[in-house]
Amino acid sequence: MPRLTSGGPPPSRRRINRAPSPVLAHTLPWLTILLGSMIPGWLLIASAPVMPPLGFLLFIAWRQLRPGLLPIWSALPLGLFDDLFSGQPFGAAVLLWSLAAIALEFVEARVPWRNFLTEWLLAIGLIVSYIVLCLGLNNLAGAGAPVRIILPQIVISVLSYPLVGRFVAVMDRLRLTPITVLR
Amino acid sequence: MAPPANRRFGFSRRAQNATFLSYTAGVVGLVVGIGLVTVSIVKPEAFAGVRTAATDATEPMGQATAAGRSYSKNFFASIAGYLTSGREHARLERELAEAKVRLVEAQATEAENRRLKRLLALKDVEPDVVASARLTRSTSASVRRFAIIDVGRKDGVTKGMPVRSATGLVGRVLEVGATSARVLLITDTESLVPVRRASDGVPAFAQGHGDGTIRVRLINLGINPLKKGDVMVSSGSGGLYRPGTPMAIVTEILRDGAIARVLSNPSDTDFVMVEEVWGPNEPPPPLNPDAESD
User: Fold this and answer.
1) How many Å lie between the alpha carbon of A26 and the closest alpha carbon of chain B?
2) Which UniProt keywords apply (chain A) (predicted)?
């Protein structure tokens, strides 16, 4: 009885005569990735590479969940933004994110089957190569860091990728929540 | 379903063009990336302006998270204090740690004084603190160790200034923005600090090891005099870092040096001080012949 008087379900659950907000639907993936580029730096003052490259993980997760939602060229602006905060040589993310986007597109055109394991394996391949290539670019720029220091980061990134995937799925539902009223 | 052998996406010219363009755009991103990386490898400071502008712009957010970080750390520290032996114990431990560092500093100062007394008319000026700041952000997903502090050009910070906390050396300023600055931490592999053993002044170099520890390389090769527990302080050779700033404690002996642990762990450091660039005093004027004959 109180439910009837209180006006039914909350606004987000009313589906009839409503559509997702186009602004939210198109900007949310970009916003989450931009935020993901900045968050690892805020969480702690690290003395070794320990945080996963969250921006990159979100970028692959969005591309895997919704191929075509982010165009391939999105790697350029998103990578540029990541470079401002990541501490890698400037341009590293532009280069490696573009490579990853092309590789993902290439593989998905050839392997249309999808399940958790193949997607995770593909993501693992991309993440491991991304972190190793970042180390390589840093060493080219004169860092001289040994390979063993990125091992913890690789493990953490690989294990956290499914969680990032879940988060992206939640964000995708939020993105497509019908909130604007149709007339 | 196996992918079709013919990978044309239908007969629509528009769809084919769109696919082609999207790949082309990806390759453009690739080429731009290669260009940027090449420039930043050849000329690392080329993008300092853009980077510092970005850190300036996001500095309020960084300050907020830094405050949150220190609150949560304090919260957990309090709980841990209750769980172990109460708050008092934690406080005493902290005081003891500070006292130990002070003791080492005093020893270093003593050794420094002895050395100075041997020289003529060399006066040691007090350290000039330019600004005190908060470490707001770090590059925790990169193999490089940079941190951002929330003071910049407006507070008088310039490139090269050493940064220290109450417990020891943290790093030096690398890029300066208007309200923020980028600090190269001493644990970075490109950071090289001339140090000496606090007790007797065995000279060495301390280089970041990349994993949070410091690699101490002795300058004089021969029998390795270092022992576990030796404290290394900055020696001030070559200028920049003020002599006697505590830096690291030796934890593992190697053939030509040691692995050391940083005394001022940046993740435990709330506030840091930016100091004036230290320059060795000018050598005393040569004695004139009359004074020589006295």
Assistant:
1) 18
2) Membrane, Transmembrane, Transmembrane helix
Helix, strand, coil tally for chain A in percent (to 5): 70, 5, 25
Residues linked to residue B250 through DSSP beta bridges, in sequence order: B260
Q: Which of residues 183-212 of B touch A (CB under 8 A)?
A: 185, 187-190, 210-212
Looking at this predicted complex, what is its ipTM?
0.82
The pTM for the full model equals 0.81
Instruction: Name residue B207's amino acid.
Output: Q
Q: Which of B29, B51, B140 sits opposite A75 (nearest CB)?
A: B29
Q: Which residue in chain B is spatially nearest to A92 when comparing CA positions?
A: B37
CATH superfamily name and code, B129-275:
Rod shape-determining protein MreC, domain 1 (2.40.10.340)
Give pLDDT, residue B120. Answer: 57
Tokens of A91: 């341009």
Q: Which of A33, A39, A42, A115 is the best substitution to test chain B (most B C-beta atoms within 10 A)? A: A42
Say whether residue B67 is in contact with chain A using an 8 A CB cutoff. Answer: no
pLDDT above 90 covers a percentage of chain B that reads 14
Is the CB of A87 less than 8 angstroms away from the CB of B144?
Answer: yes
Contacts of B190 in chain A (CB under 8 A): 142-144
Residues 6+ apart with CB under 8 A from A81: A34, A37, A55
Q: Is B223 within 8 Å of chain A by CB?
A: no
Reference B138, options A140, A31, A48; nearest CA is A48
Mutate to test the interface with A, among B38, B143, B188 (most CBs of A within 10 A): B143
Task: State how far the Cα of A126 lies from the Cα of A104, in Å rounded to an integer.
Answer: 9
- CB count in 10 Å sphere of residue A87: 28
Query: CB distance from A77 to chain B under 8 Å?
Result: no
Q: Which of A38, A102, A111 sits opposite B26 (nearest CB)?
A: A102
Report the distance separating Cα A155 and Cα A116, nearest Å. 18
- Spatial contact of B129 and B163, defined as CB atoms under 8 Å apart: no
Determine whether the interchain pair B41/A95 forms a contact, defined as Cβ–Cβ distance below 8 Å. Answer: no
pLDDT for A166 equals 94
The number of folded domains in chain A is 1
Helix (H) or strand (E) holding B110: helix B86-118
Residue A168 is part of which domain span?
2-181
Q: What is the per-residue pLDDT for B46?
A: 83
pLDDT at position A77 over 50: yes
* C-alpha–C-alpha distance, residues A181 and A155, integer Å: 45
DSSP character at residue B120: S
What integer best gives the mean pLDDT of chain A?
Answer: 86
Q: How far apart are CA B205 and CA B194, in angstroms?
A: 5
CB contact under 8 A, A86 and B141: yes
